[in-house]
Amino acid sequence: xxxxxxxxxxxxxxxxxxxxxxxxxxxxxxxxxxxxxxxxxxxxxxxxxxxxxxxxxxxxxxxxxxxxxxxxxxxxxxxxxxxxxxxxxxxxxxxxxxxxxxxxxxxxxxxxxxxxxxxxxxxxxxxxxxxxxxxxxxxxxxxxxxxxxxxxxxxxxxxxxxxxxxxxxxxxxxxxxxxxxxxxxxxxxxxxxxxxxxxxxxxxxxxxxxxxxxxxxxxxxxxxxxxxxxxxxxxxxxxxxxxxxxxxxxxxxxxxxxxxxxxxxxxxxxxxxxxxxxxxxxxxxxx
Length: 287
Known about the structure:
Mean pLDDT: 84
Number of helices: 16
Shape: flat
Low-confidence stretches: none
Structural class: mainly alpha
């Protein structure tokens, strides 16, 4: 894992990826820090940090799109797939390099609460907990971005997928009212999920039969449940969408609520992305 980590770190530090990540995060954080804390005199860094979450629209694709997609495009992934190193070492080496690059600007941002304190008073616990949550959310995004990169050899496709995922998880709460709460609209939402599940199966296996079969079976189950008990779907849409609502959990922390489950949520999301990446690479390794 150490060799993979060093190789990836060298790549980030000698290319624009690392520089862009550091510059974007520090520019956005510095801008909102000056606006909220220095100009308006807000005594906590949480407001500025909440606004800074927009940087993940740029940071996630910049760092993750090339992780595996570039290897596949240049056909250098064959060396990785046939290397004696464990698959977990390859994936974790690449992942730890990404989150190390992200940690650089986040470490600089740790100075901002100290600056606020020198000018008055601040809530150290809230600011640093939220900084930690900000970093964990970035780790989760990079993990999912790495998984998307493992599915394609197109860095553009991986970047677009990462941006869409960030967009979805940041604005998912706005979709609750859009979808509606009627049983029929909720059932239609589950049918869409069935199609997406089939698409995911195809991306991971490249097996059309398995993908179509998965989508059809899940769709048939949805229709059967709707025929037997339409009311079962009531309220289920919001429950499902809340599973990928990153913004709601981050907002809970930024409002001053120290919630360990919300912190654990971002760690779990990162672990899921790592596991999915391993499964995606493992399939290609033996195909």
